[in-house]
Write the structure tokens for this entry.
Amino acid sequence: MKIWKSIIFTTLLSCGAVAAPVELDKVAVIVNDGVILQSDINTAMKTLQANARQSGQNIPSASVLKDQVVEKLIIDTLQGQEAERIGVRIDDNRLNQAIAEIARNNNQTVEQLSASVQAEGLSYSEFREQIRKELAASEARNALVRRRINILPAEVDSLAEQLSQQTNATVQYKIGHIQLRFTDDKDKSEVEAEANELVKKLKDGANFSEMAYTYSKGPKALQGGDWGWMRKEEMPTIFADQIKMQNKGSIIGPFRSGVGFHILKIEDVKGLETVAVTEVNARHILIKPTVILSDDGAKKELNEFVRRIKAGEATFAELATQYSQDPGSAAQDGELGYQTPDLYVPEFKHQVETLPVGSISEPFKTVHGWHIVEVLDRRQVDRTDSAMKNKAYRILFNRKFNEEAGAWMQELRASAFVEIVDDNDDN
């Protein structure tokens, strides 16, 4: 005799009489220590049939569809059990956001989505709980599968190189070249030292064309080292091998060949999608409120610092070193170094993004305490190489996630106790 039977509910009438038992639902599948009810299967089938009608898709017969639905619900139940095991909880705020997103994707308001759900024979409360279960299962799957994924830096570098080669197929570079030749009267180490010194001067702002006229022994020395516009496949191999994802203004080298040392400059690039970000160099003073020092007291202290700085009585650096309660930056005269504003908390981010260079903010509060901040400089920094590596990582992660998610679900299914309850078994 089976342990699980139909779930029978009775209703007590106000007069004290007991109504006849009415079967409202029954267990359809046992999954470990949980169950799938017949109503779960009916709801899922209604949802699929409704979606198929809306999209104009043909669906299989009811019996085939039911088998598919049952298997899907078994997997969902197992994932839900894993979600419960690791403590995943989807609160109403998160659920409401997800439902609002579903409505937006359907070009509907939430009210319209609710009405369309009910028009298909589903209650809105059932729909909400179905979405809650799916979100919890998804979070559990993501958390548990991520632990199985290992991506090596060498894998990222290799794929990033392949992506850059594909990207570079149509890219044109305007190349400058300086060649320092080996000679009988100079030791090769001397030539290398001279090349390193030239690179240092170029990175410090020396004019590349003038340096090429003066020092280069290459074939384009009298053109200021200018090789003009070329695709990588048109360049000398020694050039092409050195150009990866460098961008306009990059100095490459020195690198060695059989005849000497070479220095390249990418004067310009055409056809390469670049990723540039703004970095801000700022400094700040942090005062943290305490039981003794109130918010008003911290704000007043910072206002006094601003007055003293503007009056020339003290410098920002001196006050930061002496008073700031951010030890890391206080040791650097309050400086935070060049950073992208996204790294900061919202209130601080707003200040460093909007303050003019050289301006000191009014005191403002963040989760860390009260601050004044001064923007020292802004600069545009190329992040194309980092972006390409990030893209490579995302591709590798998605590939491995899909592989591991499939394996994880198969293992979960294989190790589970699953019993389809016989409809005809009344015992």
About this structure: The two ends are 5 Å apart (CA to CA). The chain has three domains: 23-170+393-427, 174-270, 277-382. DSSP finds 14 helices and 13 strands in the chain. The domain at 277-382 is CATH 3.10.50.40 (Chitinase A; domain 3).
